Amino acid sequence: MKIAAITCDILSTARQRGATRYEDTAGLKFPQVASQSAQSFPGRADTRHLCVYPAARSTALIRVQTDSGIEGIGEAHAPVAPRVVKTIVEDLLTPLLIGEDARAIAVLWDRMFSAMRLRSHTQGFTLEAIAGIDIALWDALGKHCGEPIWRLLGGAYRLQIPVYSSGTPGQTLESRRRGIENVLNEGFSVVKTSCGRGAVSEQMHLVRQLSDAVGDRGKLLVDAHGGFDLKDALRFARFLEGLGNVEWFEDALLPEDHRGYRTLAQSTGIRIAVGETDCNRYVVRDRLLNRECDLLLPDVCRAGGISETLRIAQLCDVFGVSWASHVSTSTPIHLLAGLHIGAATPNFFISECPSGFAHGPFGNGLLADPLPLENGHITLTETPGLGIALNEAAIADLIIT
Ligand SMILES: [Mg+2]
User: Do 32 and 108 belong to one domain?
Assistant: First the structure.
């Protein structure tokens, strides 16, 4: 089964507003500071962020065509400047893979990773592009073998995979409380919320209200997006411990603050979660050796696809660390790729489920047969590969150049 062609299509929600080219979808911005009040300490670095956000959602759909007629589908995370990922796929990686045996996934992964190692492209856009191709190769291999990916990875520890709701949208406390009520009513028992910008006392007030809203009906995950310094993070971690229903404290510090994470992880009983910025096994190795976290959050569409995320998950297990699948503003391909690894690894914790999964433009409607989401779980099946087929008409409605 040889690789005959690889294509990359940019999908964007801006298409539904009439845009046909990416340059017509502009509107990048940093998140708003949640509160600016007298309680904020003057000069606190509220302007430092983990990333810029686009006005419209975008991602990259990868298809690997083989000479046996099998097509594998994958996704590369591409929320900002997706044409960079498309160019890497088309101009750099595809010429390295055409004519090669599509079943030799580990060998081909190494070839792609080695292509720009000297030039330091070992994370970021290049690993996102590699991720899309790698996932498509696994999908093709599954279809070729007539087996689901979870079985090719070694079998299933579980097929009913727990997922959590990604967010509590809205700027006001009331809208977030409503969001929590909605997702609990939909059957989720774990929900994530954001904090970390503005006065710490106000952030504590906000999170306490949301923790109360969840009550004993579920668990709250708290993501600070790198918004705290170490002293505030330590205070906040002690506060979260006292709430009783907070399961993890995510991205408390900037991801490069390795000494800070080590101190934080050793000083609190709340699970310290980090790692959506860690996109290869080597950076994860260093974080684990340094004992910086209790839970790692690799993102399969950023961290080199199924092959590298599996290695990361297995490396975590060596250190007694669990992993949870980070899933961003992306399609069910991304979600499914993480779930297959979740099925096949003993130290899997839970997967993120994007907030638009049920009804959003990048959600379940992109599949020919939508995935059943029941009581906060998605159940994997015996269907070969990723186990999904695309709703091609819905996909065509999202493609821009
Ligand atoms: Mg996060």
Answer: yes
Q: Please indicate, yes or no, if residue 398 is contained in any of the structural domains.
A: no
User: Is there a single domain that holds both residue 214 and residue 344?
Assistant: yes
> Considering the entire predicted model, what is its pTM?
0.96
Residues 230-247, buried b or exposed e (16+ Cβ, 10 A)? bebbbebbebbeebebbb
Other CB atoms within 10 Å distance of the CB of residue 251: 25
Q: Does 282 reside within a domain?
A: yes
Q: Ligand 1 centre from 250 Cα, in Å?
A: 6
Give the Å distance between the CA of 90 and the centre of ligand 1: 30
Q: What is the mean pLDDT of residues 65-73?
A: 98
What spacing in Å lies between the alpha carbon of 272 and ligand 1's midpoint? 12
Contact indicator for 25, 56 with CB cutoff of 8 Å:
yes
Task: Look at residue 258 and tell me if it is in a domain.
Answer: yes
What percent of the chain shows pLDDT beyond 70?
A: 96
Please tell me the total count of domains within the chain. 2
Residues in the 5 Å CB sphere of ion ligand 1: 223
Does 291 share its domain with 343?
yes
Rounded to the nearest whole angstrom, what is the distance from the C-alpha of residue 223 to the centroid of ligand 1?
6
Give the H/E segment covering residue 325: strand 322-325
